[in-house]
Structures
1.
Amino acid sequence: MGFNMKAALMPQGVHLVEISDVKEKPSKKKLNQWTITLRGWDRIEETVMCWWPLEGPFTFKTRRYLALLGFAPDAIVEERDLLGKKFYVAVKHEEYNGEMGAKVDEKAEGSTFGAWAESNPPPEVAAREASAADIFAGDPGNQDVPPDGEPAF
């Protein structure tokens, strides 16, 4: 199943995304599904993924995704409840029907079918954020003062 991203070729890697639109419509196999538009939180791209609703053969995946978004296991979730929710996804590129496409890597290490909760990012994102925090951990008050004590300007 995956998130089957078709609308845009989102770059490979891990991205923080936000659910910006949800519509219920039938799949090619006539199963009702949610078509969810994701907006890259750190990018402009939008892309689409599909989740099956809470009834049918893929309920277990949908429930796992909903849990990572903070919903209780027995929650009754409607499309509008998903709007604005953020989470991380691992994106990989694959050829599909002769064209390259981007989709969620459901087998990404440490993920829930290719996804992580916003509050629990994958290790590479946590390390990148920690590194960025280290850059700003110094005393910002003396950034413009050279070692001789004279202001730089």
2.
Amino acid sequence: MTISSNYAKSGKIESIKLTAFLPDGVSGPEQVKIVSLEELEKSKNSAGELEVDLSDWKERGLYLSNIELTYNDLERDLSAEQSNAPELRIYGTSDWFDDLTAKMTVTPQHELMQDQAKFASVAFHVDRPGLSVNTHIYYNDQKESTRAASGNTDGNETIFGVPYDRDFLLRAEFANETISVLDDTQIIAKVPYEKQEKHELVSIPRNCEFIRI
């Protein structure tokens, strides 16, 4: 976590309190770091920015959940255009899916300003990776057809009648149609068929299962 080098223009920071989520299935006391401005200023980076090292939390599987900046004094008329509003930057890895909403609340401490709290939020979205599978059967320029199959992702399966002792071509297409990467994916394609008296009916699932290993 980094606070831009113009932090002093916004006022006097007293301390920063960080709170973390515990890993899934782990119970225990709340994980908290409280760092003073004096401590942070001892370890500025080359750009004059304040940095908070959270690598130990990462190693323990903890996730940053809350950041609380306490100011002794906050200057007036702060804005990005005037370069006197500090930036708080958080660096991490998108190892979750769907939405993660970051909420910000500014709460004045003066008793006459308790009703003037300000709120803002931003949502980070990570698409779920999705393996799509489609199959096609080719025989003598004839057209394939489909039938309902509730066990498949798209609710259909490809079917085609092939005469005995004839060559045909089965083509399966696999794709990841989202921006997120599918890691360590093993694809297992099963080719079932149904035997009938005078011909064989080949039934191919349009969507195959995939196993992550």
3.
Amino acid sequence: MKSNSNSTTVNININNQLKKGMKKTVKAVIDGTVKDIIIGHSPYNMERPKDKSDLLSAIDRKSQLKVIFHLCFPRPFWDEGITLVDSDGEVIPPNTPNVYVPCDTADTYYRFETDEVLEDVEIHNFSTIQEYGKAIGTTMLFSRKLNNVEALGIASIASKNPTYKEIHALARTREIPMNTAMAFFGVRLKQTHTTKLALGIAVEEVPNLKRTPEQANSLLDAVEVVFGKKEMGKRYAINAINATITKYDYETVLTALELIPASTISLYKMSECHEKESCLVAELVSFIEELRKRKAA
């Protein structure tokens, strides 16, 4: 245990009993003594995730990195007339003993209710609500979850799935969004699959790539040349290309992109068609049919 005027390091052992999906009390080892404490939630605490409850039982707890859990004394909240509630949503009367308010951070806010044992907990003695708020605000300034491309990368290395590996590599190296990278390979991934794979859970339904990395990059190169670098990350072009490939084939469409006149694309852009994908498909189909007529003549 570490202690000073502002914090006390404790080890907390969560009760196993659940009520309404959340633990009502925890057992805290403070200065070598086990104490029952109540977690008091304020209106300023982060909402706990409700859509991932089915994954909790599948989490490999040994794989979770250790974190510092921050709690503070409730006095500043009660002095400001701010209501605290327990994990069941019941109001905690002011001056109730052994109440602590969570100082939520991105990596700990949900684990007060999910970890069986909370280690390295610090209890802070903030003198005002402003001091509490500033501590949370400065700590969370640059906190965030993984973005879509980063999540693909973690899922790919946690699962060694080749589909995720190649889509992540394309998105990262060519600096395009996840959904656009998927479209260049002609597949769609599900967020639920990405989450499970990142947890090391096997998923059988992950689709195989419809194109090789070389083919995907060739299409990207063509889009950059025909539509411009700024358009590479937008989905309308590759969606239209995929629709045209469905009508013909990959080689036919790639050849058309390499040969289509710049004036045709310029007129397409100037038309400001409201159905960008449909209009582009029409232009590509028209040009491919023109090429075929020339070849047949």
4.
Amino acid sequence: MPLPSKNTKPKLQDLILKGDHKHTMIVRHYNNLTVAKAVTSTSPSIYRLSVQYFTHEKVVSGISKLLLATAMYFDENSLTAPQADIVAEELLAHPESLKLEDLVVICKELKEQSVYSKLTPSKILKHVAEYRKRRMQTAIKLQLNKTLDEKQEANIDERMRKSIRQIDDSNRIISEKHVEIRKYYK
């Protein structure tokens, strides 16, 4: 896979799952991620990546590499490759699957905390559980702000037009389906 030019920002899933890029590429391009940016990102969840786009093993390997790169900031022998694989499997098995952006934010937060001298699977999973709660609160807050912003618009007709999802030629489609169905009545 060719390296992206300096002007283009590579996709996160390409950096983590496809390429053999160094962790510094992720830090360089995605160090400004926040919980709010991770929530609003349009990328698929890691579970969906493992089912639809890549193999399960490829996603586990990518997540493990990300965790092992984070472990370099702690004591030597902090997190082993088999432990990172187990944590990756745990993350994929959870019904509320995270996105790769969430994992980058989690790793960034783990590196910036001064309370851990050694990174273990239990500390990672505990931090992920706390992150999920904050992520849910952020998602609710963002949705409430979006709803309030929409309600601030003075024109009710414009609001209705934006909120109702109706196909422009829905009457024509309904009529065609009605004709198709009527032929089976005889």
